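pasting for the record
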Amino acid sequence: MHKKREIGQDGQRRHLRLVLIFIVTAVCFFAVRSTEGLVWNDSPQTAENLYGFQDGTIHPPEGATPVCRDEGAFGLRWGAPELMQTVFRRAFSCLEFGGYRPLSAALSFTGVAIFSEAYSPADPKPYLGTIWIAGVAVLFGLLAVLFFLLARRYVQTNLAAYAILLLFFFSPPVVSGAWILFSGGIQVTVPLFICLGLWLYHKTADAARHRWLWGSALALTLITGPWVREYIGIVAALIVFLELQQHRRVTLILVLAVLGFLHALFPTALLHPFLPQLPLVPVFKLGSLAAQLSTAADSEWSIWNSLAQAKWDAAKVFLVLLPPSFFLISTLILLFSLKRDRQSLTVTGVFAVAVLAASGKPWFWFLLIIAFCGLTLWQALRNRSNTKADKAQFGNVVFLNVWFLASFLPFLKVFSAHVHLAYPLMPALILIVAATEYFWLDLLNRSTRAIWQKAILIPIVLVCFVDQTLNAYGSYVTVKSLYGGVRYMADWMRTHTPQGTIVVANALHAEDIRFYSQNHVLPYWSVGVGVPPERTLEKPEELERFMRKHFVSQRILMLNMDQAFSPVKGGFHAHKYITRNTVKVAPQGDIYTSAGWFAFADPLRNFVPRSMALFLGPPDLENDIYYGRDRSHRWFLNEVSVTYQVYTVLDPAVSKAAYYLPDSTFLYPQLLESYRDYQLCGYRDKLLAVPDDVPLTENRLDPTTDNRIIVGASVNELKSKIDRLAHK
């Protein structure tokens, strides 16, 4: 009787623990997310729905597979007759840009309809937005509970599982993606479905009663998951591995998982008989996945081509998702925990030599990750005995490595933003904590012999947790600073420009200014990536034709979002028509500077280069604003900043100089070619011939102070001037 009472009390404590995890996660998300309105890409979709394209929608080629945006989200309003029929008809009968994700599309269209009412210029209903945010908060709470339950299967203590939750939910991908509420679906649904699928698998496999009920829920998850995001198909593959690892024979769950994997590979197959306009092709030939894989598909396949085309930066970015000190100390603990014998030294030496040999190579960071995974496998293998518990522990480590690699390796082909690395971060965190947990438990349980170790290691790991937690504050500062500027510019436009003013901008969030100005301005872009293609003016001839058409009837402004661009980013994302001075304009001045600062705690972050800094705001806006170390070089401080400069267009003509390398901004000196003893380069509004002994830096390229620098209107003119000098 006493034992039954203890079991009952343990069950109550377990349920209370899960309820508290759910409440804390959901309430924290709701409290922070409610402090700001819609952000990109929610805001432009809502603006499109409220105000339309205004220049017409995209018209696809004859016979092309329809995409959802061909019909647009225009006119969807919450409470309209047959709204949900319209939403599901559009979502299931056509493709998104991302691929065939009908459930995500349905969520996106529903969110558009709700927030169009919440932000209606005539009769706003903000409570609808609050209800939606509360619903997303519930999803975050469910993810926390499911991820905790999964993590608890692989670690010994609740404390370790709590640490995993903290490191995950305060990671840059999670805090950055959390600001997006509905565009492209709800970001949290992908890790939620992954955890749900694996949790339901374990419930089905372990069930002594009602197994059919758990199996039905698992089957439903395997069907609906790939319709949320194709990536969720990984759940079926992982279940196949788990079943083969556990039983080494065909089982009913294995068959179910294989069918689920086939469904993930051909997500349109089930509905193709009813919707014949949907293409019956593999997922790799749909949407953005097909676009990102097309380059590799067009070339002859070989292992060397695959290595050359791999996006190795994904590994480098992955290693800063957690505090650098955390990775360092975890690696040292893992090495320390290995048995000190010849075999372990040999394995460690092989990994060390391989990593050192890759130093300076693009795959160096990936090899570091592989070495860590290899050491966890070796640790588990060396600790393995014939006991059932040790065999199970070894199997767990193998599975965690498989889960991580299966989650991470696809990003070597399709990596675009760090927000997606939240998916492989889940198994990576469980693996890291599980591999080092015994060391920490042993350290905490020791008495006086480990005082010096406790005095050093415990403060370091606490600093790591503080550093990770500060990501949430950094994300808050980033969004509040950026959207404070957006609202200021929206108010400025409403005050200083007439209705319908055209704005040619170089940053995506110009559409946010349109949204918060209630359609007072209509943005167009000088860049051609990530923006509505029907409002792109990246080619000089397009810009001139457009301005001649609208110059008389509408006021045209150039909006330069100026920042401390890195050389790589500035070469494309700076405002090329302003930087190269190819349009006659009258400057209105620096209208507003948006800036914010936030601290970090890990000392090693002071040495992380800017190229490895992670943007903590809405993922698509990472090129719109400076983010990185404080530009005054203050330690333990990061900065975000952007300055808004406005110019009035005085003449619709575009300089002929704009037609030379029209995609280049020349924000920084750009080497075009070498000729004789000169470097021919473009810089701002000039083409220069610079002697080879003069470095191509901004402060050295002044022809008024260095008469050796030659100025020309074209490359041919520069060469002619150099030839004439050579013959003197």
